[in-house]
UniProtKB/TrEMBL annotation:
Organism lineage: Bacteria, Bacillati, Actinomycetota, Actinomycetes, Kitasatosporales
Annotated TM spans: 25-45, 51-74, 86-104, 124-146
Keywords: ATP-binding, Coiled coil, Kinase, Membrane, Nucleotide-binding, Phosphoprotein, Transferase, Transmembrane, Transmembrane helix, Two-component regulatory system
Entry annotated with the keyword Nucleotide-binding: yes
Listed GO CC annotations: membrane
EC number(s) stated in the UniProt entry for this protein: 2.7.13.3
Top-rank EC class of the record's enzyme: transferase
Catalyzed chemical reaction(s): ATP + protein L-histidine = ADP + protein N-phospho-L-histidine
Keyword Cell cycle: no
Residues covered by the Signal transduction histidine kinase subgroup 3 dimerisation and phosphoacceptor domain: 183-248
A GO term, aspect molecular function: protein dimerization activity
Protein name per UniProt: histidine kinase
Residues in coiled coil: 144-182
PANTHER family given in the database record: NITRATE/NITRITE SENSOR PROTEIN NARX-RELATED (PTHR24421), NITRATE_NITRITE SENSOR PROTEIN NARQ (PTHR24421:SF10)
Origin species: Streptomyces alanosinicus
Length: 412
């Protein structure tokens, strides 16, 4: 609508100026009017072909036509994304053309006596008119074009930042989901390690207690005491685990009405505390292996422990992982090879610690299983623990019919 209105005004102006042009050129007035209408209507395509509009305005400058066409064309040309040399060249041509035409027209007027000013007025009028019709539209067009490009650049940057923020939010959500899954897996592994071994020994002792209750009351009392001790140990470890989980729940309860930043800090602190308590805090260590093996021996398993190398301490996570591997391996022997002789080997090396738990075939085919349920996650959990510390885990049946679990964990 704007371009149509400007083109209509330009056509009317050029058509009116075409009358004088036709008289000066000695051509029919109707031809001058049509020529002016056609020339002025070129402004309709100023956005698509600004160079053509400026060239037409320069071409009809000697006929003293198209002042609106020239001004609007130069403004559109300067505001477009064209090389500056093209804009400067066309603006210079328009400036020179306007100056020459004005110089000639003013000189003719002075010669005919219409103007009685001095000779200095001719160049002054030519330069002033040329600059007045050329410089303002060019400068305004350059400013508007630069401002438009700046706004487009800022808008593109804002869109880019919005896309980046959205992508970061999606990645943060993915990382949060991954962290939740890892936390659930870790807690499930800890619960399995805590419960499976203790409860397995309790079931074995309960079966032995049922068998000897009438024949050997003293042994039955000892087995009952062992079952009670193991139950209390299992409850203590479970209470520690549940305490960590409740700490996370308390953070969620306190989040109501608390700023988001504070909630995030509290959640991060709870997560860090959970990791420290479960992974690096007080827990089982290699010095407790003798007690662990003694509990299995008290349940009727024949277990021998062999230690190689110089005994030394390791990081808490390394010792806990080594302990859990041996514990889970003994639990599997209770479950699947009750009564089988088991060999536990622990090797302290220069930069790593190695452990191996190997059981022989059960003495009686009917005693291969103690009737304990198995979820099939024990070996998976051991492998995850060892691999998480950069170690190597191998398990499988032996040629003699038993089963072997081996793991090597870096000392650092």
């Amino acid at each position: 609508m704007l371009d149509g209105s400007l083109a209509l005004l330009s056509a009317v102006e050029c058509g009116a100026e075409g009358i004088g042009f036709a008289r000066d050129a000695g051509i029919p007035v109707s031809v001058g009017i049509v020529f002016g209408l056609l020339a002025g209507s070129v402004l309709l395509v100023r956005r698509k072909w600004p160079i053509a509009v400026v060239l037409v305005a320069i071409a009809i400058t000697p006929a003293q036509m198209g002042f609106l066409l020239s001004v609007v064309g130069l403004y559109t040309l300067a505001s477009c994304e064209l090389p500056r040399r093209i804009i400067g060249a066309l603006a210079g041509m328009s400036l020179v053309g306007t100056a020459v035409v004005t110089f000639v027209r003013v000189r003719q007027d002075m010669a005919s006596g219409n103007l009685t000013l001095g000779d200095w007025f001719v160049p002054f009028a030519a330069v002033t008119t040329a600059l007045g019709l050329t410089a303002p539209p060019v400068l305004l067009g350059l400013y508007v074009g630069a401002r438009r490009r700046l706004m487009e650049s800022l808008r593109e940057r804002a869109d880019s930042l919005e896309r980046e923020l959205q992508l970061l939010a999606e990645r943060a959500e993915e990382r949060a989901e991954w962290a939740r899954n890892e936390e659930r897996t870790r807690i499930a592994r800890e619960m399995h390690d805590v419960v499976a071994h203790r409860v397995s020994l309790m079931v074995v002792h309960s079966a032995a207690l049922q068998a000897v209750a009438r024949k050997d009351p003293e042994k039955a009392v000892r087995n009952a005491a062992l079952v009670g001790d193991m139950g209390r140990q299992a409850l203590t470890e479970l209470r520690e685990m549940l305490g960590v989980l409740r700490a996370g729940e308390d953070v969620g309860r306190r989040a109501a009405g608390v700023p988001l930043a504070a909630v995030r800090e509290a959640a991060a602190a709870a997560a860090a505390a959970s990791w420290v308590v479960v992974e690096d805090g007080p827990g089982p260590c290699l010095s407790e292996l003798a007690e662990l093996i003694g509990q299995s021996a008290a349940a009727g398993m024949v277990v021998d422990l062999a230690v190689e190398g110089e005994v030394r301490s390791y990081a808490a996570r390394v010792e806990q992982t080594a302990y859990r591997v041996v514990q889970e391996a003994l639990t599997n022997v209770h479950k699947h090879a009750a009564g089988a002789k088991t060999h536990v080997r622990l090797a302290h090396r220069v930069s790593e610690i190695a452990m191996q738990v190997e059981n022989e075939p059960p003495p009686e085919p009917g005693s291969a299983s103690a009737g304990l349920p198995s979820g099939g996650n024990g070996l998976v959990g051991m492998r995850e623990r060892v691999v998480a510390l950069g170690g190597v885990f191998v398990s499988g049946p032996t040629d003699a019919g038993g089963f072997r679990v081996s793991a090597v964990i870096p000392a650092a």
